[in-house]
Design goal:
385 residues, mainly alpha, 83% helix, globular
Amino acid sequence: MRIEWQIGFWVAAFALLILFLWMFSGVLLPFAAAFCLGYLLDPVADRLERLGLNRLGATLIILAAFVLILALIIILLVPILGHQLAALIQSFPDYVKKIQDLLAQQSSYFTQGYGGALLEKLGLSLPSGGDSRAPSSDLVSQAATWAATFLNSVWSRTTALVSLLSLIIVTPVVAFYMLLDWDKMIATIDGLVPLRHREVVRGLAREVDAAMAGFLRGQSLVCLFLGLWYGLGLSVIGLNFGLLIGITGGLLSFIPYVGSLTVLVVSCIVAIVQGWPNWHLLAFAVGVFLVGQFLEGNILSPKLVGQSVGLHPVWLIFALLAFGSLFGFTGLIVAVPLAAATGVILRFAVRRYRLSTLYTNLPTAEKGSILIEAVASTHEPHGDS
């Protein structure tokens, strides 16, 4: 088959996949979640099989443990988090007002002291009187507008209530069948690959699996630890809504830097308002955050995620935002696997390009050295995509 036909076939297949996701994004959420669960839990089922259980028994044990853990989370955590969320929503206007008052007060102190003369020399004098709180008010309003727009985009595109109910009811059932027949599905897909390209596709599949496994399983454990650390730590120091802030930040840590910044900013704001004019609570909150960052950066991420995942943070953030905007919460679930697969395919395409005549079509004297360089580059460890 000519290379043009092959490229056209894969481009058409990719376009059909995107069209399928877009058309059925409203009902794909439980299936995407079940696929991720099946992928994450398949090594556990394989290990139980090696211990002597059959596939059905291993799947039933995993499903029972999953349902038990989910039930404990719903019974123990959901009421507490719901109560804190309701209290936070009720207290939010008071917190915003106090922050604006504090900013206006500190701005007034600054302009009336040595800062006013400095700003006048620089031609940056601030407005006097009550107008000093206007910039902070505009900033808070703009931030609230952005947050509301993003949440509305993600929530509305997933047909809120139906998707939530289907996620709770359908996902465990679909995950059970996927986990039970996982090896059969992989064998069926492998049998459909053309014999001529089977070894190449298997190599790409192993690279995709290494990238997804390293990130999904490792980062999931990191998020779990950070959620527990931040939630318990902020609660122990007496910060209002500490458990809600910590667990939310741990879940958002799946997106690089977003979870950490969320915990830092929100906990500092709550600590300032709650403890003013005492700075001890703010210092404790920052201490909890810094210890969590140290443990993540120096112990957890290097050990659990590793350095060979091949998912650059910028590429990951783009994939999450793009797929989240297009397909809602379903897009957030499939973004990481598709980003990992795309990164592997792009690296493979670059290696093939450097071995092709399009890249090496040079005079004979130079062709040999360029070809040697291209071949050597294919054996080097791949970098971030």
